[in-house]
Request: fold
Amino acid sequence: MAEDQAAAGGSAASAADGPASESSSHRDVTILFVGDVVGGIGRRTLLECLTVLRERHAPTFVVVNGENAAGGLGITPKIAEEMFANGVDAITLGNHTYHRREIYPYLDSEKPIVRPANFLRNQPGRGVCVVEHGGVHLGVVNLSGNLYVRAGRSAFTEIEVALGELKDVDHILVDVHAEATSEKVAMGWHLDGRVTAVVGTHTHVPTADGRVLPGGTAYITDVGMTGPRGGVIGVKREQAIESLLTQMPVRFETSEDDPWLMGVLIKCSQPMRADSIEQVLMPRPAQDPRGR
Ligand code: FE2
Reply:
């Protein structure tokens, strides 16, 4: 596959029919969604690639899944602040949300960082936030799958509550953080025509099914990760292989081999629907061999 490409140009859905209401004040919007940032190498890759992607695509909004940003597990307030300071508009999370205790009060603040909406209500944080640029309001929803990952409530019932909190926004992006492809595919169809985009995260492996569904919702089962392709979904490959070979406990460390940013660009010209979705698969820009 060619490097630094916007691959898999999404099919453009017809703008002639669909559920979205017209708005004379609406303008073209581009949403850059970036997949799971893994550790320090992922954070550095994110920031360096963002500089390039901003020049190239001028995204209106940048949303990043940050649930692996702190050493591969969880996120800290300091890391979240660094992302926001570098132009990230909102951060989504997932099954490692609560790995770092220091993030708990931060999740209850007004910062645009969301954990899965279908976690229990008494768990820290919230599942919905709204960010704004130039009068355009983007609602961001985080969901967790229910198969093979822990979430106290059903994603399929709680999404209705989440959407009910987002009555007055121009666009809605839903990050479904899930292991099972079936849950993510089903959620895409369930929300088709009701939100701008449903993007999958968690597996760290990008899928080739990005497209605009018939109702106008951009969909992809998994956008992949922002981290080391030379590892095993973020872990040093030697350690992952040793664990599988020996079936004994092995201490995992984050690989730093061959870091890439993986995400999607979603372009919109009408409220609550997408014109296209394109994968972004981009290696970290070339480095000074003496530096990191
Ligand atoms: Fe995850």
